[in-house]
């Protein structure tokens, strides 16, 4: 510390862990420190590293995947021990310290203690970092552990794990200013007494510097960066008033909200509303709180609103294929005429695809009163794939990719219908730009919705009238289903556990895909971006097929209607957008943000199938409140806190609900709510919910922790198959700043360009390909058959519905 720099200056060496931002937040708050971050693979010479270190009072070396003997895993951490500067190593950092000064690091018995919360034992009378600290439990995230060896004269053990396995939990160097802890002080489940250890360490570090007259060099630019990201908008060059050059930059600028509210017809469900106003066969986005009706489910989460996009054929669309240097901006039609405008826009101009989207949205921002009863007045609706998320965290995709589909597809929706299930009303809304000629849509739509009231209500899904009648079941002979192989899946679980035992990952969300090929259900879209040509055509052996032209298979919309009644879910959705069709019964919210900048994430981890033996919440709680399941959830909670901290910054993330069990139609799930407040929300060029979305994909509950290394490992184990829409997100970002995104799970999807050719009775026949992804988190305590069963449980819902439909 120096007079010019009253705040402690701390350097954090980041080993690409998914908990790093939680540590920097803890240090910033607890020590009122200024924390700067340098990744462990930052290329830097010894002399530059020495100069960089001179700018700090102390260093913290972070946790991370891998092991301390592998130089690539520890990088700069292994080099810091050569300098005279106070250091605290955490987990991997601790292990590096042990190895550097004569100790050994080996695997712990049983393969790892990830997410376990255990009591730490120490002598709190002796002078050192544990002095005066009361008893506490700490979260562990390690598979490896340090041992000092009998004649180690350099390091001294300070703390151990209570119980049989007396694993080393804390050390210090006898002479040098180096300390280390094996546990994770920043975890939400580490007791607050643990904070005293950090404060004591800082006191020791400060004293060491003072005694030696070591002063921080000030006034020179640090190579390390800030702990939080800058906002997407602040990274954009140019001014707001900058001349708009391209046609698309003018689209829907200065629009004004018009809306009319009508009562929701009694007994009408979201599909009835959709069918009353839109004709089938076109593009469609329906974000459906499918369990809103009290009778459908006892799940705790019940969405209040459902949002339907209208007039999609005229909506501007931003599409981006991950790996391309450009985004496609398209408008298919306008004022009732086909225009087919499209333009390739280089994303580098905006710092990437998220910058482009942020800028587009900011120019169309609507100020809506926070007390407003509509979550969405217009704005982006669409999907983002898992692969876009991979690219965002620096996991390269295999090239060449087997297709050229959009990984980000967002439509700027200006006509929308919002169902408020709580108040029993429907808002018909039009965000009308000045040039718009269409002033009758709202009235016409409202009239249709009112007349819905007068029509005889029938259940939203009627097996007799819908094309899913028993007659059409004959089609099932031409449908083929390929589920994952039982043994192969179990082997993959074992491989995951081998990676975990080696310290490479703490938890891996293993998944696989089921493919279904069947007769083509949806008519091709008029004005499709790409003609429907089978790109993945395969010839199959001639086999009997009973398909008949007169028996049309059920459309994806019919399939959706059946799924939403069989598996009512708070985040259900139906999308037919461009080449993608998605039929989803997702129970999992990824991220929502409101008009005051409050962001909330809801990771779900821990699943138990409903059965006769487990039919009540109390029974499920007994099964899920066990160390294995809680650890699974906790790891993702700490990961999600890290993702939120990256934008919300130190001290702005809380966990209002931890490890809560909820009931759904066929499963019980354990969830946690993590919240973050965007700092200085509403400031010009400040943060928006999009910043959080962009930094936290792919959803941590679908990857495991640490995210990056886990995704790399999963890519190998899952055989380099793209997960595509599955494990991605679907949702909206309102022009008013609000947004809500669900994790795409418990769903079926298909792409128009994926077709196979089979030999039917009447010659060659094209078939479409549906995919269902399913999986679960593998930890060291998982059993291969338990994981296999969990995957099949999750697969069963959508698959059964498909079976019923065909
Ligand atoms: C992987 C899936 O689900 C994810 C994994 C869960 C788990 O491991 O318990 C729970 C919810 C999802 O985050 C899936 O549904 O396919
Ligand atoms: N959290 C960590 O730093 C883990 C360190 C090491 N990879 C282990 O598993 O033991």
Automatic annotation (TrEMBL):
It comes from the Eukaryota. The keyword Manganese does not apply. Residues 273-422 form the Anthranilate synthase component I N-terminal domain. Residues 553-794 form the Chorismate-utilising enzyme C-terminal domain. Residues 453-486, 525-554 are annotated as: Disordered. SUPFAM superfamilies: ADC synthase (SSF56322), Class I glutamine amidotransferase-like (SSF52317). Its EC number is 2.6.1.85. It is an enzyme of class 2 (transferase). One of its GO terms (cellular component) is cytoplasm. Pathway: Cofactor biosynthesis; tetrahydrofolate biosynthesis; 4-aminobenzoate from chorismate: step 1/2. Residues 12-201 form the Glutamine amidotransferase domain. It catalyses: chorismate + L-glutamine = 4-amino-4-deoxychorismate + L-glutamate. Keywords: Folate biosynthesis, Glutamine amidotransferase, Transferase. GO terms for molecular function: 4-amino-4-deoxychorismate synthase activity. InterPro entries: ADC_synthase, Anth_synth_I-like, Anth_synth_I_N, Chorismate_C, Class_I_gatase-like, GATASE, PabB_fungal, TrpG/PapA_dom. GO terms for biological process: 4-aminobenzoate biosynthetic process; folic acid biosynthetic process; L-tryptophan biosynthetic process. In the C-terminal section; belongs to the anthranilate synthase component I family. This is aminodeoxychorismate synthase. It comes from Podospora fimiseda.
């Amino acid at each position: 510390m120096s007079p010019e720099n009253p705040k402690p200056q701390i350097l954090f060496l980041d080993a690409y862990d998914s908990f790093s931002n939680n540590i920097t937040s803890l240090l910033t708050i607890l020590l009122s420190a200024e924390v700067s971050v340098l990744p462990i693979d930052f290329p830097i010479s010894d002399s530059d590293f020495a100069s960089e270190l001179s700018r700090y009072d102390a260093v913290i070396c972070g946790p991370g995947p891998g092991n301390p003997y592998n130089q690539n895993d520890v990088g700069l951490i292994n080099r810091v021990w050569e300098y005279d500067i106070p250091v605290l190593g955490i987990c991997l950092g601790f292990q590096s310290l042990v190895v550097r000064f004569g100790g050994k690091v080996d695997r712990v018995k049983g393969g790892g203690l990830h997410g376990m919360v255990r009591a730490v034992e120490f002598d709190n009378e002796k002078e050192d970092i544990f002095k005066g600290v009361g008893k506490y439990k700490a979260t562990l995230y390690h598979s490896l552990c340090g041992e000092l060896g009998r004649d180690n004269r350099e390091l001294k053990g300070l703390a151990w794990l209570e119980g049989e396995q007396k694993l080393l939990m804390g050390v210090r160097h006898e002479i040098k200013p180096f300390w280390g802890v094996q546990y994770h002080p920043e975890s939400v489940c580490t007791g607050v007494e643990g904070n005293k250890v950090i404060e004591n360490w800082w006191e020791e570090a400060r004293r060491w510097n003072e005694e030696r007259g070591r002063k921080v060099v000030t006034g020179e630019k640090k190579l390390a960066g800030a702990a939080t990201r800058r906002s997407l908008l602040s990274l954009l060059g140019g001014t707001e008033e900058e001349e708009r050059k391209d046609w698309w930059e003018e689209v829907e600028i200065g629009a004004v909200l018009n809306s009319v509210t009508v009562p929701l017809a009694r007994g009408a469900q979201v599909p009835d509303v959709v069918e009353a106003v839109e004709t089938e066969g076109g593009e469609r986005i329906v974000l459906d709180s499918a369990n809103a009706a009290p009778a459908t489910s006892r799940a705790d989460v019940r969405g209040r609103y459902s949002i339907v996009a209208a007039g999609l054929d005229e909506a501007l669309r931003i599409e981006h294929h991950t790996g391309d240097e450009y985004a496609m901006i398209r408008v298919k039609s306008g004022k009732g005429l086909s225009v087919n405008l499209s333009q390739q826009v280089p994303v580098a101009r905006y710092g990437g695809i998220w910058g482009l989207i942020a800028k587009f949205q900011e120019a169309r921002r609507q100020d809506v009163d926070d007390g407003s009863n509509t979550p969405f007045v217009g704005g982006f609706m669409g999907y983002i794939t898992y692969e876009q998320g991979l690219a965002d965290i620096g996991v390269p995709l295999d090239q060449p990719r087997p297709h050229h589909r959009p990984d980000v597809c967002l439509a700027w929706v200006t006509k929308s219908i919002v169902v408020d299930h709580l108040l029993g009303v429907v808002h018909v809304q039009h965000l009308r730009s000045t040039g718009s000629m269409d002033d009758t849509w709202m009235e016409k739509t409202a009239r249709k919705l009112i007349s819905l009231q007068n029509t005889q209500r029938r259940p939203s899904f009627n097996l007799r009238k819908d094309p899913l009648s028993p007659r059409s079941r004959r089609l099932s002979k031409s449908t083929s289903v390929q589920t994952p192989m039982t043994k192969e899946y179990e082997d993959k679980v074992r491989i995951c556990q081998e990676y975990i035992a080696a310290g490479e990952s703490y938890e891996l969300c293993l998944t696989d895909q089921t493919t279904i090929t069947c007769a083509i259900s949806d008519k091709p879209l008029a004005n499709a971006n790409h003609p429907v040509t089978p790109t993945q055509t395969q010839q199959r052996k001639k086999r009997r097929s009973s398909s008949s032209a007169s028996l049309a298979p059920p459309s994806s919309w019919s399939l959706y209607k059946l799924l939403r009644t069989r598996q009512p879910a708070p985040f259900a959705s139906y999308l037919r957008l461009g080449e993608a069709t998605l039929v989803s019964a997702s129970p999992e919210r990824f991220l929502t943000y409101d008009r005051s900048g409050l962001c909330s994430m809801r990771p779900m981890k821990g699943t138990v199938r409903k059965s006769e033996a487990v039919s009540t919440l109390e029974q499920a709680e007994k099964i899920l409140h066990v160390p294995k399941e809680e650890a699974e959830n906790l790891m993702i909670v700490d990961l999600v806190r890290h993702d939120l901290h990256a934008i919300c910054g130190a001290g702005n993330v809380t966990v209002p609900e931890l490890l809560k069990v909820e009931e759904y139609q066929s499963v019980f799930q354990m969830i946690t709510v993590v919240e973050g407040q965007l700092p200085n929300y509403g400031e010009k060029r400040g943060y928006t919910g999009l910043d959080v979305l962009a930094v936290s994909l792919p959803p941590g509950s679908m990857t495991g922790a640490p995210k990056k290394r886990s995704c790399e490992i999963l890519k190998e184990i899952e055989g380099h198959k793209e997960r595509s829409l599955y494990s991605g997100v679907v949702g909206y970002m309102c022009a008013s700043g609000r947004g809500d995104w669900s994790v795409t799970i418990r769903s079926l999807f298909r792409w128009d360009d994926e077709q196979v050719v089979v030999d039917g009775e009447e010659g060659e026949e094209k078939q479409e390909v549906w995919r269902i992804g399913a999986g679960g988190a593998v930890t060291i305590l998982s059993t291969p058959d338990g994981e296999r069963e969990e995957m099949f449980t999750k697969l069963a819902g959508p698959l059964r519905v498909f079976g019923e439909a065909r």
